[in-house]
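Example (one chain per record):
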Amino acid sequence: MKAYYLALTGSLGLLAMAGGNAAIATVPNSQSDPLAQNVTSVSQLSDVKTTDWAFTSLQSLVERYGCIAGYPDRTYRGQAALSRYEFAAGLNACLDKINEIISSGLADKVSKEDLASLQKLQEEFASELSTLRGRVDSLEAKTSKLEERQFSTTTKLTGQAIFAITGGGSSTSPFLSSTNALAGNTLNLPPDNGLPIAGSGNVNTTVNARVRLDLNTSFTGSDLLLTRLEVGNGGGTAGSVLGNPLNEFSNVGFNTFRLDYAGNSSNFTLAKLRYDFNLGKDVRVSLGPVMHVYDHVDKNSFANDEAADFSSTFFINNPLVVLINPQTGGAGGAIDWNPNGGDFNFRALYLAANAGTPSPVAVTAGSAISRNAGFGGDPYQGTVELEYSPKRNGEKGAFSIRLQYTRGTVNNLDFNTGGINAEWAFSKGVAIFGRYGFGSIDNRGTAVVGNNVLGDPTFNFSNASAASGTTSSFSPQTFAIGLAFPDLLKQGSLAAIAVGQPFIESKVGNSTQTNLEAFIRFPITNNITITPDLQLIFNANNNSANSTVTVGTLRTVFSF
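Predicted structure:
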């Protein structure tokens, strides 16, 4: 069959004939050597010598009929065996070439001896040639049928559905915030006990679902117009109940143990719309009204996809690098420059979450505080990333490190942060990966206050505020590190465990929250995976008075 397809495209001649003798060549495997090389001289075939018994025959076919092609590495591999069907396919290719020569009025270029040999070979391989032509006719009929019924000549539809059942809880009820200070006032409570968070505590088991439909459109073959429609069942998770559900304007904060695929609207929404195209040989550009930071920077082979690895927001992206909400995204553009296809990539992006809103956005309940909007308004972020990833045979290697800088504004807070993202598959079945973030968060000289208990999500760190209520800036750090085990139980499976701290800052709380998550993804088929996932959260909200939170999830993903 491999020779059949190659012969149909005219990319290979199998037959070498002269004076009624035949020399047979091997067939490039269409999977390992997809691009056979046409040759105009036998000298271009590195493994063909003038002393070879078939040299004269090959030379005749190449120079007189152009009926021979070699492998991509300029070899001919004439010693390999081939079947009668492969021989017949090569014969068919040569017949087509000679018929083309005759039709062009150049019949005198074809010798009578060669025509006689071809006639004998046609008779000898009549059955195989008939079979091949029957297959061609059948293939052409099927192709015509597919073209008539296809959705679009430029668009391919892909999709994904996630079903997840989740249970979680904590013995602390109600949950406590980080500190006692609210609106600049210190309440009459024991130091660092925090305040009760309304509506928090143990939760019931939930079932969450999300469906994505991607329309992948290409106009030139190298570009991509990506349109994503997304819908869910509106379900919540332990992470959005133990904190305040309003506390979701960005990817920053303690409320990072919710499921990243929960909470989607039960109405179809435009979840992604962007156009990717090449600008020269080494530059890829993306522009669109609905884009996402995680598509362009802070990628990681083992911790970057809520459908394939970790479920929680925290381990999927660095919360101090990816500021814009990963579900809603924003408008903007991104660029990826890979100089000469080498080991370095430089990336840059700008996204604005409220680009389609012309007027300021009020974000409080019963408060005059508002956020600017529009393409240059709050929330927005600009990020640059430099990646070093040594390649092997032109493909991504086992080690990658990415250096990042982000400047942005979220909920009237200014962010200047840096990050490091690294991964190293140091053996076939084990890899280490991690992220680290650092920087500053400033409220432009005004005290940073968290008042989510009263319904005001102006500060996004899970009801956190400075202990005295007068601090205008923070210098947080964050880290996550883990081990991954590719193909642990079966090819295509992945197990991983990671630990990290979302927000390390001595001014917030009396301890530091620590997240631990482990999962194993097991492929049932090429299109179905099942993933048990367990999360443990210690000292939630940077408050040691909160007991350990446990979240268990069983996730099933269907891809089509």
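Caption: Residues 1-35, 181-191, 240-249, 451-468 have pLDDT under 50 and may be disordered.
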